[in-house]
Recover the amino acids of this structure.
């Protein structure tokens, strides 16, 4: 399982693995924690013959090293398709990854950028039909407005195996109009 690391003020910083979490606990950097799905990790045996252990919560807020926060999700197809929940934003049908493509809403040939707000998931058929035209020119209106994920949404997009506690935490800060982000 991955642990959701937060800054002191509760903003998502990164997904970290169990070893990184143990390091934060054992160096006394965990300020507060959330979630009921506690995982106990056992370490070595000390001179009293006691086995050390660390109880890891699914969400931990820590001091230090928070400036590496995941501010912007990388713009790869995996995250883009996930943002749009594998729906073609032109015909509205859901497809598998291999049937999908990224479409520039405003075509690159017309100055359209590689940005979250100018890229949408499109099935290959719709993408081909639209060609190098805007939705207006092609008569193919968008079914949803493309958006740039906020840090909470980015964290959601970056991890496929999110625990219930983590999901509830992240979802509480999803934008309202983005409820189609989650299946
Ligand atoms: Zn389509």
């Amino acid at each position: 399982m991955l642990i959701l690391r937060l800054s002191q003020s509760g903003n998502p910083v990164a997904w970290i693995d169990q070893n990184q979490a143990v390091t934060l606990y054992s160096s006394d950097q965990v300020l507060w924690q959330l979630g009921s799905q506690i995982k106990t990790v056992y370490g070595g045996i000390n001179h009293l013959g006691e086995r050390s252990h660390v109880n890891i919560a699914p969400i931990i807020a820590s001091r230090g090293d928070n400036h590496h926060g995941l501010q912007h999700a990388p713009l790869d197809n995996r995250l883009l398709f996930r943002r749009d929940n594998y729906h073609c934003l032109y015909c509205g049908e859901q497809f598998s990854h291999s049937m999908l493509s990224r479409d520039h809403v405003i075509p690159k040939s017309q100055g359209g950028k590689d940005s979250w707000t100018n890229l949408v998931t499109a099935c290959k058929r719709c993408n081909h039909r639209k060609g190098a035209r805007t939705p207006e020119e092609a008569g193919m209106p968008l079914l949803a407005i493309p958006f740039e994920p906020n840090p909470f949404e980015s964290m959601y997009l970056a991890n496929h195996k999110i625990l219930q506690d983590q999901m509830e935490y992240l979802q509480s800060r999803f934008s309202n109009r983005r409820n189609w982000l989650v299946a």
Remarks:
- The longest strand covers residues 39-45.
- Residues 1-69+154-183 form one domain.
